[in-house]
Fold each of these.
Amino acid sequence: MEKLVIQGGTKLHGEVTISGAKNAAVAIIPATLLINGVCTVENLPNISDVQIQCKILEKLGAKVEWLDNNTVRFDTSNIESYKAPLDMTSKFRSSYYLIGALLGRCHNQDIEVGLPGGCKLGARPIDQHIKGFEALGANIEVANGKVIARAEKLVGAPIYMDTVSVGATINIMLAAVLAEGTTTIDNAAKEPHIVDVANFLNSLGADIRGAGTDIIKVNGVKSLKSGSSYSVVPDQIEAGTFMLAAVASQGDIILKNCVSEHLDCLTAKIIEIGGHVEDTGDEIRVWCNKRPTKTNIKTAPYPGFPTDLQAQMGVVLSIAEGTSVISENIWESRFQYTYELNKMGAKITTEGKTAVIKGVRKLSGATVKSTDLRGGASMILAGLCAKGMTTVTNIEYILRGYENLDKKLNELGAKISIQKE
Ligand code: EPU
């Protein structure tokens, strides 16, 4: 077991390069199953969720070759198994994309994918994924901890999503790409990683229109082309985490390799609380030279305020002047980090979907745990701006989703080390 030790009190300063988006990468990797051929994916974040997804593909018979730290060549010509075991799929959430990709690839085979795991953020149903697969003609059964899926053939259909779901939108796209006819996904999610997965598939010859809007149309094609390369979009949430780290530490940093329009809503909030953001094309400078002021946050699907930045924003508001209110509208258990933050002197009370944060002047170092991936990142931000030393345990959550977070922060002047527990 490892822990992170942070000596607080340094203002971040310098440049940081943002990695490829985790939540696009974990869908693009299983999507290579649809090619039945070869493809090179660049700008993959080298994090544990990506590594496990690659290992599962190997287990199914794909050849997976790391060409460098962030580039992988996938050869999915010889898939021998359509069964992804529970001991692998339960390690992360996005293993559910294997269902859509395997269904899309093969017909009349029993597909078995162990149920997904991932951060404990409350109930994480997959009913909308299943509803979509069934609409395309698949038989789905959930039993013994796995999803068993089978279809003679998939035929495009109109699908209305009862709730806006990132995972279900992407999964239905994966299943529909090679289906017969047209699939319409109504009330689709619009996150940047959905657009990226659609761009990836279209670069291989798929016909997906409207990704990034409420209605996505997938016109089925007979096959996808082999032999091309694709570079994953920069990670919106990693970029947002660094922007908030700059504000929390009253630093001044430049983010390279990011897409500023994916961060419009965070930029507006940072300016509202007294920080500064300057967008110079594909670089963003963020700085803050005074104590931030209160604001209210309501998480919502894109382009709303991302739930995945709620905890990091919670840290900034915990040291802001005045009282802020956060409404978490996506996940029911995303305030677990507040109990840890209160150990550092924050004054946060929660009830249901609402957290009330009375800003304090300073946090003080303590031993705190990562409650989930973004909760863990928020503990690091808290440690950066706290007085004294902070120890963060359960850091495996953080390593799942951020590439070299400690190294990148240290290059900005932070004092963080990973130590054995
Ligand atoms: N939902 C349903 N039924 C479904 C699917 C979702 O009711 O079939 C509900 C969920 O319970 C939740 C809401 O719909 O209340 C949104 O869930 P969504 O399906 O959008 O979430 P997800 O696909 O499981 C992805 C990200 C999460 C991120 C959410 C919301 C991946 C691998 N994960 O999860 O990322 O919080 O979208 O943006 O893309 C993270 O990176 O830390 C993380 C948790």
Note: The two ends are 6 Å apart (CA to CA).
Amino acid sequence: MGTEKASREAIERGAAALCAGRLIAFPTETVYGLGADATNARAVAEVFAAKGRPRFNPLIVHVPDLAAALRLAEFNETARQLAAAFWPGALTLVLPRRPDGRIAELTTAGLDTIAVRVPAHAVAVALLRAAGRPIAAPSANRSGHVSPTTAEHVEADLNNRVHMVLDGGPTPLGLESTVVDVSGPALRVLRLGGIARAALAGALGRPVPVAEAESSRPASPGMLLRHYAPATPLRLAAREVKRGEALLAFGAQLPPHAGPIFNLSASGDLLEAAANLFAGLRRLDDAGAQGIAVMPIPEEGLGEAINDRLRRAASPA
Ligand code: TXA
Ligand code: MG
């Protein structure tokens, strides 16, 4: 791994590497992000592997300007007002995802919504413009560690797991962005951050509530997330396929099957399986089968997150 001063030339190389599917850590005004091409499911799977996240939470997609954001999501009037008031800046908007946005299913964890942000940092914006495509970026730390505010923090935490760290000095805010859900009729704050709730209320001229679970259970922000779940029932760790079932397969040794099949990875590669997971679930959900038999997936590396998501999909809360 290399840490490099964020010169024009290093930014250009970073952008080219992003487009080639590599991970690049870069500064934003909030914290350092671990960036990947949001349209490349395999690159996004690498982000989860590098962070060691035990589950697939949806990632924030970063774009250089409002025009690029409008290509990815549907903006209602409230969303337009917030974008006009706070972009570029430390505000992330959760909005209905446009189906033609080309974002990988893994980026949004299969949801019909997408979190978008236009950062206010010269290095981040230059990188996004040079890449010319939306960049998914969670904070550039190992899962459970604090968000990094310097290139040294990133290097200490993600050593060897990232292609390049662009060093733009300490991040000005040092606090993650405020995440606001504007996807439904009632807006709510999902995560408090760099933009104060009072500032949001001031811009809109009305109060902005914090989502219920956030205030009562601050330790578990994941509880706020709606999770993608197929309508077709899932049967996990299946070793045979029953009549009327579709097969979500993994590996080369398949049980006899007659119905629809989607193989997450014929070579048994967990990174490939992670990249294919949500697209595969959707495909089989649309295939009209009575159930989906899911072959066993090893509980190691990204298999942990894959199994977590399959268990949630099998027993929707
Ligand atoms: O300041 C920041 O936001 C930094 C910099 C790099 O931009 N990024 C960051 O990303 O903190 P991350 O992945 O650590 O946090 C993303 C937050 C999570 O709380 C996640 O649940 C929420 O955004 N989120 C993303 N997509 C969502 C969606 N479709 N619906 C609801 N929440 C979503
Ligand atoms: Mg984080």
Note: Confidence is low (pLDDT under 50) at residues 214-223.
Amino acid sequence: MIVSEIISEIRHKRWEDKSASWGLVPTMGSLHEGHLSLVRQAREENNRVAASIFVNPIQFNRKNDYDSYPTNLASDLELLEREGVDLVWTPQKSLVYPEIFQTYIDVTQLSKVLEGAARPGHFQGVTTIVAILFNVFQPTRAYFGQKDAQQEAVIRRMVEDLHFNIEIRSCPTVREKDGLAMSSRNANLTKKARAAAPVLFRALNLAKVAIEKGEISSKNIYQLLKNEIEKSECAQIDYISIADQKTLNEIKIIAGNVLISLAVFWDEVRLIDNIRISNK
Ligand code: AMP
């Protein structure tokens, strides 16, 4: 496995064998089974696998979230090596964003709702770094997790609009045994919050069951989710959304392909989760 901070070295390895297909897994490190599931899928579908480890400062809108984001480079590299990754880019912040940096990518509509509304500037940071990664690696395919459902939608829009010749692949959310979606931020939860946090997936499943039983009112589903989550006294709901999967616009009646997503604070730690529902 080649690990490098230097773009010319990454490019050299990438183009060593021009006929090889490459899968890219962008990450912010502090890797867990969720990230590794992306790596495994990339391994299955490509001749070579690349990953990036970079905590992207411009996608954080809260300084405290950035400062407290967990890092663990040595053990990340061990995990990636074990998974048979071929190439890893671990750039310095000053290389990616030198002082004169002034080019940003903005997906103007999809970026502004849900996570984008709650975290202004977040997706501009995401699309900018992903475009940089796409240019550095020029992968055949790139892998993203469904846990970040809006991220996937925004990146697919960017790829279509800017004609990146890259196939976007999405992988299901990997969960702990108790249902909590794996996230690097889980490490920052207090014991009490960690014990309570599985309520998020429990609530999403309750909503799913209610919809399967015939509930079509978003208002009722919203209330059901809210009640369930508020049973946990340390949870502070940031938002609950019931939206069309494609446009991400809020819907009143649950029909077609629906994305139910939520963001909840546990003290300073903000967790997100979602489920997709098809109600024909
Ligand atoms: P991050 O390091 O948080 O930026 O995540 C890197 C990639 O891993 C993103 O595409 C995430 O959507 C994906 N990812 C993070 N957590 C999970 C999970 N629990 N299951 C599946 N994919 C995940």
Note: Residues 27-28, 34-35, 37-38, 144-145, 147-148, 171, 173-174, 181-184 surround adenosine monophosphate (CB under 6 Å).
